[in-house]
Each structure stands twice: as structure tokens, then as C-alpha cells.
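[job 0412] stage=fold_complex status=start
inputs:
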Amino acid sequence: MSLNLQTHTEHFTNPLYLESGRILEPYDITYETYGTLNEEKTNVIVVCHALTGSHHAAGIYEGESKAGWWDGLIGPDKAIDTNKYFVICSNVIGSCFGSTGPISTQHPHHEPYRYKFPVISVKDMVKAQRILFDRLDIHRVEAIIGGSMGGMQALQFAIHYPNFANKVIALATTHATQPWAIAFNKVAQEAILKDPEFQQGYYDPEVIKEQGLSGMAVGRMAGHISFLSHESMNKKFGRDYKRTDGLYELFGKFQVESYLEYNGYNFTKWFDPLSYLYITKAINIYDLSRGFDSLSDALDKVSADLHLISFKNDLLFRDFEMKEIADEMTKLGKKNFDYFCVESDYGHDAFLVELEKFDRYITEVLDG
Amino acid sequence: MSLNLQTHTEHFTNPLYLESGRILEPYDITYETYGTLNEEKTNVIVVCHALTGSHHAAGIYEGESKAGWWDGLIGPDKAIDTNKYFVICSNVIGSCFGSTGPISTQHPHHEPYRYKFPVISVKDMVKAQRILFDRLDIHRVEAIIGGSMGGMQALQFAIHYPNFANKVIALATTHATQPWAIAFNKVAQEAILKDPEFQQGYYDPEVIKEQGLSGMAVGRMAGHISFLSHESMNKKFGRDYKRTDGLYELFGKFQVESYLEYNGYNFTKWFDPLSYLYITKAINIYDLSRGFDSLSDALDKVSADLHLISFKNDLLFRDFEMKEIADEMTKLGKKNFDYFCVESDYGHDAFLVELEKFDRYITEVLDG
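[job 0412] stage=fold_complex status=done
writing structure:
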């Protein structure tokens, strides 16, 4: 059977009440589906994307060569089997791939929001998705799954909509963003803000797309450090030099430098800097226990089967952060969870690249 | 007894032949001494500074409040006891505190070198110091000690001038800079280069001193991440917020953000961006085995007693990097070394701040 990839955008005119007390109105949500919804609507799996991801999680668009970000996991006969399941992945609000974000036109003006866009939280992203699913007449799903910021969304779903999903699978994430991760985001934010081309948000998106924004490139380079690990960097690059005759040139390049440069500058051509500021802000303020007395109180709400997957050498969200969730669940006397630390040297990016290390586990959870 | 702090600058007109094949001529070396040289000149200890350090390792200058960077370790009755020892610390060439660097005037022109300054290596820094000591009629010293890039210098001394020191103590360093550390340097270099105020090195140093250079500030923020550890960040900052009412403001601040901002911007007022480019380059190309068939061949030259001190949660120079040196020494059948991993949660900066965890060890080595 085919992937049956479909991309849609839904428009909402009802106000979205945000955690900050502010309102987003109107707003769009762009989403993608794979597989076919069964008649009873009991085969839905929600996939949540990370910071720079989008609704395009699987398949290849016509005329393009690059597949969606979790294509290895989603499709016919893959771990998230589209022969069985109807998969929905939506672009989070605040992002820049179709859902309303800071670069969207602010109604009724004809100008982008820019800094007038309200600060959104991961909880707000989840709330907007819940409203989208309502619109699609989907009121309960088989599973919600996501890694990194996608894992944060999955956990927020588990706590704030405890009856919405039968299973929640959160990978490479945390219960509250730690200072280490906030620090990396700070470097990126500061690099963007101080880039004169950014013009306090009044940049020309077309110019940015062509030339890139060096501030965001620098920030993204720092991000890439946090996505890898000492081990994966040693394996990938070691001390290899691009041109051995350039060792004593001031700007000669180690392989790791070329990698950061290429990925940093390439990134600025496809991601919006205002969205980067807003989404990193959402990640920074993410804390499952906000609004509760404690993390324990928050986790007490969970009624779905909760599956926690961490990665051994993840330097962005450490394995012990996921373990802390598991420990709290144990203390609460909950039985409906498990915690699995994947042996991996890759670092945070493992949830995107080392699929073979956890795809069977995902299959077991979904079939279980 | 007093510290007997003295600051001097020596001028050299003989060419300094650099590892790159280029020549530095003439050049100055600024250095500081503490304690008193005994008649036999047998009580000299050489202290080597790190990336942004200087010759000012101990004591407080008149009218200032901040002490030298290793003041807790150097002084009367301290681990490096100036009642007994005559301590010399010199500013490395390429730096910006008196020794010749890229912002120095290029003879016979009246303009700074800027990019015309040759790329220097840690080996070159050490060679220049050896020439300084010759000038001071010091031909053998009791010990050489340094951390981070200072540790690199200490190790280079041990290999290239095997008969110069009785004891070599290297802390929080490596035998060759790994891609992880190079990556952090890359972020800083790119941030400096892309800052329009940097003007390809044609900035006005006075303007920089007053206003700071936001590119270098961003780069330094990334550096600070590598100097700390997850554990120390959690202890220092946790998720504390500077103003709790600002959580939903786009640019509200977590404590960790304020810390990075303060330290990043403050740094740009006292360190030169061209020196930062040149010294990080020297660190990137540092590799003890260069010019030898292997690390083992290089270490085979060591004749001083070698003392290797690593720090448990150092994320910049991992403990196993120091351990690799120790392992090679063992394989070579050498007996004149020891390796000691300090239990510390602090991260790389531990060699500057957790002195109480290793100062007794230093005393034992020096008195032994």
C-alpha cells in the first residue's frame, strides 16, 4: 500500500487562549496525514515534531529528493505502519511552515506579526493541535509520539488531555528544560538579535532565503554541538583536515568546522529567524510542573500508557532527566509506564538517525 | 613574606622561527614574577596561562580589586609557595596583554599586524618562553605547571625541551584538541568574523573597549557553556528566573541567560578579537604528536616527572584524553609519571575555581 501522503491547512477563527493570557486569533494549522483513517477512527497516531521540524514527517514531495524527517519510521510496513495506522503530524503554531507564526500576517493588518506575535508555550502548541483534531472529528487517538520538543508535546498531551491518547511515547526529551539547553538557545538567540541583517525582525524574508542570516548560522552551529556527542564527533570528524596544506592558515578548516559551517549557513535558507526565537523561547519555558504543585502532581494526571525513551549520550536532554520522570511515576505507584535508555554514542540526534536502535520497540508498543 | 610581584617586558630582535615556517621579528614578551630567585637559580617554577589568561597570575595591582587568575594557588604559604619558589608567568605570543600579537604594530610599519600576523602554535608559544628564560639566564627550572592551554604548553615543554624542567604538571588539558573543542572555537570565530563591527580586523580597539563586540560576546557565551558542566549549571542556575513576571516576555531572562550575557559582553571589553582568533587557532592545531610518528614517539621524549591532572566532568577536555597520555606512558614502560582524576562536578573551569581539590597534590609534587 502507498503512504497516502496528504497535506492540508485548516483555518480557525475562534480565539486561541494562550498560557500567557494573550490570544491568538485567527490562526492556521498546516498538517500532514499518512495512511487511511478507519471507519471507527480508532487507528490514529499523532506525531509531534522538534524545534526545526515540520508537519512533513514522511514521504517525498514531488520534485524533491529529501524525505520527511522521520521517513525511516513512518510508512507502509515501517515501525509506524501506515497500512494499519492513520498518522497525523501538524506544524506547531509559532513555526514557519504553514501554521501561524511570527512571520504570518497579523489580522486585520497586512504586516507580519514579528515581535507582536505572542510568546507561545509547548502547552499552547498542544492545545492548538487538540482543537485541530476536534475539527477533524478525532476525539481519541491510539498513540502520540515525538522526540525532543516533539517529546515535550507528547508529555503535555499526557498531562493536560489524559483521556485523549491510549499510549504516549516521548523520546530524547525532559520534564523541564535545563540550564544547559537554555544556554545553547541563548547563544542562538543572541546571535540572531545582534545580526544587523535581522533588523529587529524587519528583515526581508526573500533576502534572507537567498543570502542566509549569518547570526542564525552561528547560532545553529552552537546548536549542532548540542545535538552531537564527543563520541559521534570523534567518529564523524576526528581531527581530519580539509586541506592538509592549510594547517597554518588562519582560516584553514578542520572537517568539523566545514560541517558546522555548511549546516549552519544552509539552515538559514530554510528556517525563519523569528520562528527560531519564538520556538526556542517555548522550549526554554517548558516545564511540565507549571500550574501544578510539583512534577509528581503533574504526572499524577497521566492515564495513558507512558513510554519514555532516552539516549545514553544525549547531551541536550540527559538520560537522567527522563529517568526522573520514571522515578516519579514509580513513587506515584503507577504501573502504566516504562523507561528505556537506548545505548547510543550518537548524542541527541540519535532519535532522528539511529532508528534501528528503537524502531522495534516502537512497533512493540503500538502492537501491544 | 610578601608576594614580590614584578611585571617586566623583554624585547627580542632575533627572529623567532615559527612552526609554520614563518618568522616573527622583532617581538616582546611581557612576564610577571613572584617570590625571589635564589642564588643557584634552582627554585624557578614556570606557570603557563590559558586561552584568555595573561602573565598576571597572582596578586592584585594597585588600584584594582581583582586578583590574578591563579592567586589562590600562588603566594606566600600557598601551594606554589613564593617563600620558597621564584614563579614566572609570561603572556603568550599572539595574546593581547603586552606580548607581541596580531594587534601589535608590525615593524617597520606603524600599523597593527591584523591578519598579517603569522599563525602561531602552542609549540611556538613555548619556544618564545624558552628564549625569554635564556635571556633571564634560567636554563633549568624546578617545575612547569599550567591548565587548559597552559597544560598544553607544559606538555610541549616536556616533549620539546626534555631537560628543561624537573617536573611538569598539566591540568585539564589534552594531547590533541578534539573536534568538540574545535567546534566551540569555530562558533566563536564565526561570530567574530561575521560581526560587521569587527571590520575584517580593521576595528578601532578603543571603540571595541567601550562598546564591546557583540560577535565576540556571542562566541564567548558558547565558550562558557563548554567551561561548565550540566551539574554545575544546575547548581548555579537551575531554572531560576530573573524576574518571575517576565516568563511570557520574549526576552525575559533565566539566570543562566543573564550569566552568559554578562560574561559574554564583559569579556569583549578586555580581550582582543584578533587575539581570540589566533589563540583559538593555536589551540585547534595543537597536537603533541605533530612532527613525530605517533603520540607514543612524542611522549618517549619526556624525561621530567610528569603529573597529569584531569577533572571528572570536564566537557572541554575529557578525563579520558589525559588518561590516554597516561596509558601511552605506561605502554612505554615509563615510571616517571602519575595521573590523577579530580572528582569534580564543576566542569573545565574547576582548574581555576576548585583549587582546594588539588592544591595539596600540587604541594606534594613540588615538595616531593
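[job 0412] summary: DSSP finds twelve helices and twelve strands in chain B.
[job 0412] exit 0
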